[in-house]
């Protein structure tokens, strides 16, 4: 059988293409949206990472999820700096989750509380993606809205404590390959990963509706 890291990658490939080519992402990457859309998207990410990271501490010693909990990945402080830049010092007062974001964050919290294997699926889907395609998004955002390179507004995409993302991703895939789960549980994790992608696509769909391009 293929390694687990190869399995989860292959199994989610189709959903990856769907997320990547969603109308909202295409418009964002194509430089066709205003900064308000980018700010709204960044707000949604805040809810997702609050769910991933407020639950991380109690999973740190769990045999399945524990090895994935790494302080150098934490995104919430960077997101909060970006939001202060995008929305101003009182960014918290205007923060609101779209229903699709609420559903996504709820699912992450459910997994964190009841099913650490499922949490690993969500962890993989976000952090490995941020370390990969996230860099393309950062580059586009800097060019489209004029943020300082790796500065305020795009700090979410900058992993200050991961100088070599390619090496980090290799290490991460080794963690996936060594995950303390049997084949059935691995299958379930793969299925949850597809759900995680679908939840992301749902957020993009809602954002696309909120920020349609006027023809
Ligand atoms: C426009 C948006 C996106 C672009 C341009 C993009 C691009 C990429 C690229 C180039 C890779 C390959 C990295 C490599 O081979 O090392 C990658 C991997 C990945 N992306 Fe994306 N991506 C996007 C959106 C997303 C989204 C929305 C998610 C999920 C929330 C996601 C999750 C992932 C994951 C989990 C991987 C790692 C696959 C693996 O090696 O196991 N990506 N992405």
The CATH superfamily turns out to be: Heme oxygenase-like
Structural class computed from helices and strand pairing: mainly alpha
Strand content bin? under 5%
| Small-molecule components bound | protoporphyrin IX containing FE
DSSP summary, beta strand count: 0
Helix content: 55-70%
**Shape field:** globular
Reported for the largest beta sheet, the result is: none
CATH architecture descriptor text: Up-down Bundle
Number of domains: 1
Enzyme class: oxidoreductase
EC number: 1.14.14.18
GO molecular function, one term: heme binding
Keywords: Heme, Iron, Metal-binding, Oxidoreductase
Pick out its properties.
Heme Oxygenase, Chain A, single chain, globular, 67% helix, 215 residues, mainly alpha
Overview of this protein structure:
With 215 residues, the protein is mostly helical. It has one domain: Heme Oxygenase, Chain A (Up-down Bundle). The protein is 67% helix and 0% strand. The protein has helices at residues 4-11, 13-20, 23-29, 35-54, 56-59, 76-87, 99-114, 116-131, 134-145, 165-177, 183-210. Helix 2 runs parallel beside helix 11, helix 4 (35-54) packs parallel to helix 7 and helix 4 runs antiparallel to helix 11 (183-210). The N and C termini lie far apart (49 Å). The mean pLDDT is 96. The structure holds protoporphyrin IX containing FE. The site of protoporphyrin IX containing FE has 18 residues, from helix 2, helix 3, helix 8, helix 9 and helix 11.
